């Protein structure tokens, strides 16, 4: 199996289709030189899961925080934080549905 995986990696490398993360250039330890969100605000990001820009939206953050606080008050024990997998595979929740509406 290891040999087969190594062959596939080499094949992708040869085809130029091997994807790799590039380490960011650091100006100071712990800080990268990525463009600031403000300098990119006029662009639309179709290359990530945040193409709607909700990851940096203050209003959306406030809505999620408020909904999660209400959700926690109705839970016994500790609620699960995070998807833990696809909702199609590991189950849906009322919290996820209400956040989408």
UniProtKB/TrEMBL annotation:
Compositionally biased intervals (Basic and acidic residues): 1-17
Chain intervals for the UniProt region annotation (Disordered): 1-40, 82-101
Protein name: Aminotransferase class I/classII domain-containing protein
Organism lineage: Eukaryota, Sar, Stramenopiles, Ochrophyta, Bacillariophyta
Ranges of Polar residues composition bias in the record: 91-101
Coiled-coil regions, chain positions: none
Organism: Thalassiosira oceanica (Marine diatom)
């Amino acid at each position: 199996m290891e040999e087969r995986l190594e062959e596939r990696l080499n094949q992708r490398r040869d085809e130029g289709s091997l994807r790799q993360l590039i380490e960011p250039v650091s100006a100071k330890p712990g800080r990268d030189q990525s463009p600031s969100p403000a300098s990119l605000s006029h662009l639309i990001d179709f290359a990530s899961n945040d193409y709607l820009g909700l990851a940096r939206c203050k209003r959306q953050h406030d809505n999620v925080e408020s909904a999660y606080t209400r959700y926690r008050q109705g839970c016994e024990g500790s609620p699960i934080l995070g998807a833990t997998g696809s909702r199609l595979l590991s189950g849906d929740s009322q919290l996820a549905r209400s956040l989408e509406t």
